[in-house]
Amino acid sequence: MSMSKIGPIPLSIGVVVAAIIMFNVSKKRRAQDNDNWRKDKKGGNGESSSDNQGNGSGKTTYRSLNHNSARQASLQQDERSMWSDEHLPSHLVRERMKEKRRKEKIPMLTMKSKMYDNITLCDPQGEALSKISKKKANWYIKKGLADFIDGKEDSVRLKFEPKARSQDADYGMSTKKNVCVACGEPENQMRFYIVPYAYRHLFPEKYKQHISHDIVSLCANCHLLCGQQTQIRMDEIEEKFNIVKKYSTDHRLYKVRSSALALMNWRLKIPAEKVSWHIDIVRRYLIDDCDLDDSCIKDETIPKDLLQKACDIDFRVLNTAFVPGPDLVVASMADDDEKLAKFIRAWRVFFLETIHPRHLPQGWSIEYPVHCMSTDYPA
């Protein structure tokens, strides 16, 4: 499968459309100003013409360049102002704010340590078996099952003969780079599950223990793109099971909450007859459901604390028959190893076709075993 290079990921379709429109507008304005400048240079402007006759072409060129530079600076300032929030539609402003908040959260969501330590694990004879993490190496040392070779912490030697060997020496022994497997970005790495964690954590233990083939590192932007496409595919898979909604809506309580919010936030902007209608809805709720005395609400006025109580109503009703989609999907495969293997490999194909990774570890393959054959040896 060809691995084509992916370009920068657009932050928002709306922002991109706005950028194209603004670029075209500024381009037309710049072209119009340049046309006017050419006309002035040819003699349309009396001052420029006299300068050309009296002082020579050198001075005219100097004055024209200065004027043109000022015009270009003005255009650049106009372009910057066009990008300000006050010149954008409200929905694009919201998109920009969402993107700004997402970027602010990136440092909190990214991994604080490297994903791969690439410590070599050797058998008692010194033959390399695989690459493991520093945490796993320290576990072997702490349990007295291995020692560092020559006092160096980049390789450990087991004190016992392992019962099983790596299922794929090419992948197991490959040095894995701590970069985004899609674009190669070395910063802001996030762990990504090729088979979504919502499914993976429900698999039998042998599909989860000692196998990290389907966990890769992505930068924040690639993680966002791939995560969005993954969610779309999950929704498509789960649609086949006709999943009932987790919550249903109590329309009476929803109406009470809407009326309370209207009175709390927009009372002064609502017609008087509409205000009375909202008050009547909230009053009936407070009297019937909250056992309040009618005397608590006088003169078409509801105390602010009672109004806030109505605003805080939870109008959602939990559906006791709800079963999460991932549970239904995994349950449909039960203990059928063939179905699970097909399911996992389908997600590997989807990952390749979605993100087109160019920096996968050597030996990574769609056909790589989907579960560990033995728990005595870390893959």
What do you see in this structure?
With 379 residues, the chain is α+β, with helices and mostly antiparallel strands. It folds into 4 domains: 92 residues, no CATH class; 49 residues, no CATH class; 105 residues, no CATH class; 71 residues, no CATH class. The chain contains 13 helices and 8 strands. Strand 1 and strand 2 form a beta hairpin. The longest helix has 32 residues. The N terminus and C terminus are likely disordered.
Q: Quick recap of the structure?
A:
With 379 residues, the protein is of the alpha+beta class. The protein has 13 helices and 8 strands. A 4-stranded mixed beta sheet has the order 2-1-4-3. Strands 5-6 form a two-stranded antiparallel sheet. It has a two-stranded antiparallel sheet with strand order 7-8.
